[in-house]
Design a protein that fits this description.
Rossmann fold; about 375 residues; alpha/beta; about 15% strand; six-stranded parallel β-sheet; 13 strands; seven-stranded parallel β-sheet
Amino acid sequence: MARILTVIGTRPQYIKYAAIAAAGSLPWEEILVDTGQHYDSALSRVFLEEYALPRPRHTLEAGDLNGLPRLASLLRQLDPLVAEHTPDALLCFGDTDSTLAAAIAAVQHGVPVLHVEAGERSRDRDGRRIHPSTAPEEANRITTDHLSSLLLCSTAGAAENLAGEQVQGDVRLCGDILFDLFLQVRDRLPAPAQVLRGKADDIDPAAPYALCTVHRAVNTDDTDRLRLLIQTLDSLDIPVLLPLHPRTQARMREADIHPTDGALLLLPPLGHRDTLSLLRDARVAITDSGGLTREAFWSGVPSICLDDATAWHELCGIGWCTLTGVNPRLIHAALAESAPAIHPDGLFGDGNAASRVITAISDFLNR
């Protein structure tokens, strides 16, 4: 039986991996590696337990590092694991430092890279491609794609991007595995009042509120930008529920940034189902997460993107996502807009992406 080294390390990757794991018994031996990039161990356990995921064979120590120091640390730890296990392929997800480190470690040992969510490219408010030097995630996804032997795409636009770049690997359009998981859990979510109990008892979940997440380096690692963002969220006209990512919480503490009894209410980190529960009844999602942007669309909730560019620009084109960065005027204006009347289907597949991913990987391993 073929052996695959699967590398995850952040909240979105736990969730995407859960979609693969939910598809049933895998037709290969899997060695699961958690890079520890999501360095809050308690939150990591939340996702492992929520979806009954197998315990990683190896857990690395990424710590609270960023940029090249984190990439170098991950490479030092991944390199001997690839050498030890001699996998037939390495499976990675998305656009994180963990993804790029895994891809580099694999190709150094002649191991093919299988990239889920390949081909997505960020665009600004005018629809122009951004330069990879302006966003670490963009550099990570482009580099990983050009190192990959099998590129598994969530959208037709992603496959078109790869065709335009003439990548050397095999490109397969599978659909979005995150959409698979969304469909599986959407009818089994807790009530918002249950999620908020003991965390925000004074919030009426039947009244309008915004659900917010902030975790990307563009917002957390620039103190002035983070301060402006928190001030803007605190000034909005409806309650803003912000479950704090560990990195965001640390940066706010270091810079003495905190809400001033306005609209913003800080919550502890939430599991995936609890987040989807609050999202389902929200008036709007305000986020720099590409995952939550898509989940908001699938939930029929408009979103405001706190980044300066997004890889999911097709949602901006149909009005379901508004790209604002941390510009207060744009955020207030977007909040005043109503949800679009038309909600197109099929942009992210039909809910069977995970089975297509497994089939594509099996075909690749058996060729």
